[in-house]
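Quiz preparation item.
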């Protein structure tokens, strides 16, 4: 029973590492494609990547926009 639990933990760790590295690999590719297609949202801060997929600089935080109160 103990070996089975250890196997499940190992599989879980391998899955998490695979998801993390896959996300880090595909994120610049997906962002670039969305930008080229014109489907990238402008209300969400998007990190910038160079040609090699390295993070250039984290985007500055944007303050939320508030609508003016209605006039009476």
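Solution:
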């Amino acid at each position: 029973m103990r070996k089975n639990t250890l196997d499940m933990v190992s599989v879980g760790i391998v899955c998490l590492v695979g998801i993390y590295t896959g996300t880090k690999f595909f994120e610049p590719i997906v962002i670039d494609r969305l930008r080229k297609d014109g489907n990238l949202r402008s209300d969400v801060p998007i990190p910038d990547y160079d040609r090699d997929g390295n993070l250039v600089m984290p985007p500055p935080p944007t303050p939320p926009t508030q609508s003016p109160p209605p006039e009476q």
